[in-house]
Amino acid sequence: MWDTPDxxxxxxxxxxxxxxxxxxxxxxxxxxxxxRLQTDLEQxxxxxxxxxxxxxxxxxxxxxxxxxxxLEDLGSDAFRAWLDSxxxxxxxxxxxxxxxxxxxxxxxxxxxxxGLIRVHAEELGIQLNAAHLALPVPGNGQFANNVKFEHQDxxxxxxxxxxxxxxxxxxxxxxxxxxxxxxxxxxxxxxQSDWQVIQMQAVVTAELQQxxxxxxxxxxLPPDSQSAAWELLTGPSNVGENLIRVWxxxxxxxxxxxxxxxxxxxxxxxxxxxxRFAMDLPISLTLVLSTSTLVGEGVMQDALxxxxxxxxHQVEVPPLAVHEVMEAVREQQGPLSADQLRAYATRIVQQSxxxxxxxxxxxxxxxxxxxxxxxxxxxxxxTLLSELSRLGIPLRHTLAYLAMVYDPLDQEVASALLGQGAxxxxxxxVGQNLLVTAAPEETVLMPGLVYQASDIADGLGFTSxxxxxxxxxxxxxxxxxxxxxxxxxxxxxxNLDLAKYYANRxxxxxxxxxxxxxxQEQTFPASTRASVSASTSISAWVKTEVDSPVISSGHAFRxxxxxxxxxxxxxxxxxxxxxxxxxxGRPPLLRLVWPSVPAGHWHMVARLDVHRGAxxxxxxxxxxxxxxxxxxxxxxxxxxxxxxxYLEQGIIHTPxxxxxxxxxxxxxxxxxxxxxxxxxxxLDVALTIAExxxxxxxxxxxxxxxxxxxNKLNEQNYAY
Length: 720
Known about the structure:
By secondary structure, this protein is α/β, with parallel strands linked by helices. It contains 24 helices and 22 strands.
């Protein structure tokens, strides 16, 4: 297959050289040109039938590279055509083997193994033949994909795009967590219609992206067009010419087509050229680009700036709403009361950060109704780490060191762990949207959910607790002990409580004893104690037997804002939710501020489904799940750890009456005039406020005008 008459002679010469190396590779008395050796592919397929789960990651890594790589520039056109056909055949064998192992894992209920195989297949652009089956849920034996999340707002936006695409091609930038939930969303978009859908993973190599597209296209093309697609797939490769021929084939088919590409980190020149060409075709076409949430939309938006803005649509798949989870699991959770169902769904949303994949792994598991934080599921951890694979192992390992810090990161602590390269690592992590500004106090302006990260705060935090935990899990126990020792010594002179925590976890008894002695010498500063005043500016009393608030049918919306410290503030069904998932660190203060209110009586209906403070911090910063303050008066706090009044940052904090857990309660009281503030300082929290009235003003439930305002703010891309 080479363009030279000497090819056969050269092959014989090379085979004889191998034979004379004395490696004993060839059977005696057999023609070298008829030699049949076992390949690594055959061994890989054979191992699949007896593979223990402990070797799964190693086995998957052997199937990650491009088959027959390095041969692209050798030989003639005939050889390259043969190479393409061989790669296609090998790809089919890999797909069949992965599908078999995936199905076996599903049937045996091994959720983590099945999820790891699915993520690996998506990275290779492989559609598993067992993908129509769902992931099994631990605890009840059912399949997690039986739980469907509707994402109605995103569905409606996509349906409007489809209507426009009937006349001229449209381009959608789909943001949000990019696991199988987005694939389901696109599949639901075309359900019960004549639209055909092609879904594939993004790859950097133009030839592989085109080959993946052709393989997927052959599934939907009419029979008389499949031979032309096969010819493009196996014939001589010229990317520029083939781009024209591929899209001409699509146009000739007359199919209304949705093409979705997932996990885009960048738009390659080939992909940009392909999009521009497709957008000018006179066909019914919807192109969907789904970015990784660890990258953000900025890169995509810059690359698409030259496209027709009237045909470019940004659709965000928001985090899961509590009412969505309640509807999805209502039939599966057995005899739960209304309060229990609400608490269960709220804890799913709080712990999963509203991420479909994480939520599914929690649904049906033994999730505690007492609000205890569950360990990070293996499937979620592996998916998060796979998203970071493009960063390379050295950078990921360095980030894992930083993930051991249970306080906002700054340049000093990063330098203590990483040395001189700390600045570069922090800059790279911020640029990749893995670290964000995390100030010790954050303010959100209500009712519009307006939040702007502080320009003067120098602290950084990971974008999610799940990401931090996944990174820490990549370190060995020896590495973790070593890092804790470094951090204990670093924090000893500046943060005694945290230093003691690290020293205890590292088993550093020689360091713990001096730290304890130093702590006993210190007393709580007298200036922080507040004397009880008879003229306290705010008061409250609690009622525990409260009926569930009635939600009108016109309030089926959810709009959410996330702060740098991981607080999620949402208006859902006209109610206010405050959620946070963070097991360690100093509890940051969140303040929600409304414009001025008059003095008078106030009334609130709320519920608390998760609250976890910060035991390692002692009394230096008291956590609480709800604080209410008006004007310049005291702040009344509920579900806190303080037992008496105290002064912090010049504000008197007055513990209110105890509130119940996991059920609706009402608070009533009086307060003075001025700006109105609701605050939270917790590591883990899920607080819902259904009604809030101050004097003659209705703060909650949110009015329709508030919903319009929040939508407008989201469209204007306020800081998120």
